[in-house]
Amino acid sequence: MRGILLLMACLLGAAGAARSAELVVMVDSTSNMPMARVQDGRLVDGVHKEIGEILARHMGRQVRFVMLPRKRLELALQNGEADLLCAYMPEWLSGDYLWSRVVFTTEEVLVTDASVPPVRAIGELRGRPVGTILGYFHPEMEALLGEDFVRDNAPNMESNLAKLGRGRVHHILITRVVLDYYQRLRQPPLVIHPPLPVMAFATRCAVSRKGHVALREIDQAIGQATRDGSLAGMLTRFR
C-alpha cells in the first residue's frame, strides 16, 4: 500500500513539474493570418504562434497553444485554462487579468478604396458604413462619431478586405500590420488611397491570475525578446 502511495505521489509530482515547465498560450481560433493560421484545430503559423514560441524560448519552457473561439476566451483565461493571451489591449477584454509590458506597437488605419474620394478626417464618415470585425471595439470611432458610427461587421479581416475589393463597402478599419500583409500577398493589390491613421496602440499579454507563470517572468521574457530583436524580426516577417 505504501509503495502504491509513493508511486502515485511521484506521478502527481511529475505531472505538476510538466505543467510548470509549460507556457500555455490561448489563441482565438477564428483569427486569420497574419495573426493565426489554424489547420485541423492546430495553430500552425502566425503572429500568435511566434510570440508564444519566442516567449517560451526565453523562459526555458515548452509552449502549448489552447485554441478557443473569441466568445470563450475571456472566461477560459480567467479560469486558468491558459497562462496568457497576447497581442491585446486592456480595453479589448473584460475580466480581471494581470497585464504585461508592451509586446509590440501598431496602428489602426482607415482604408478607403480609390473609386471614391479619400477621407481627410474621421468626421467625414458620419452615417457612412465602415467595414469592421464582429466583436471588435473601436472606442476612438465611437467617441468621434457617436451614433453616426455605422458598422458593417464581417467575421474576420480577410472577409472585410474582400468586401472592400468587391465594392460592398468603401471604407474599412484595419491594423496596419494586417493591411501590409494582405497587400503584399494580393495580386494585384487593392487600389486604395493612402491609409488614414486612426489610433496607435501598444499590445500586451493578458496574464491569468490562476495560471502557472508569474507576470514577472513574462515581463522579463518580453524584455529579453525586445532587446535581442526577435519580436521586431517576427513582425517584419509578416509585413
Q: Which features characterize this protein?
A:
11 strands; 2 domains; D-Maltodextrin-Binding Protein, domain 2; signal; 239 residues
How would you characterize the overall build of this protein?
- This is Transporter substrate-binding domain-containing protein.
- Keywords: Signal.
- The protein is an alpha+beta fold.
- It folds into two domains: 22-105 and 202-237, 3-Layer(aba) Sandwich (D-Maltodextrin-Binding Protein, domain 2), CATH 3.40.190.10; 107-200, D-Maltodextrin-Binding Protein, domain 2 (3-Layer(aba) Sandwich), CATH 3.40.190.
- It contains eight helices and eleven strands.
- It has helices at 2-20, 47-59, 70-78, 139-145, 157-166, 176-185, 215-227, 230-237; strands at residues 22-28, 37-39, 42-45, 62-68, 84-88, 98-99, 104-112, 129-133, 150-154, 171-175, 196-207.
- Strands 5, 6, 7, 10 and 11 form a five-stranded antiparallel β-sheet that branches.
- It starts with a helix and ends with a helix.
Mean pLDDT: 89
In CATH terms, the superfamily of the largest domain is Periplasmic binding protein-like II
Number of domains: 2
Helix percent band: 25-40%
For the sheet with most strands, the description reads:
5 strands, antiparallel
- Spans of at least 5 consecutive residues with low confidence: 4-19
Number of strands: 11
Distance between the terminal alpha carbons, to the nearest Å?
Answer: 61 Å
CATH architecture type of the largest domain: 3-Layer(aba) Sandwich
Element order: H for helix, E for strand? HEEEHEHEEEEHEHEHEHH
Shape: globular
Which class of the largest domain in CATH terms?
Alpha Beta
- Could you name the CATH topology of the largest domain? D-Maltodextrin-Binding Protein, domain 2
How much β-strand is present in the residues? Answer: 25-35%
Total DSSP helices: 8
- Rg, Å, rounded: 21 Å
Q: Could you say which structural class the secondary elements and strand pairing correspond to?
A: alpha+beta
Organism: Duganella vulcania
Signal peptide: 1-20
Domain Solute-binding protein family 3/N-terminal: 30-236
Keywords: Signal
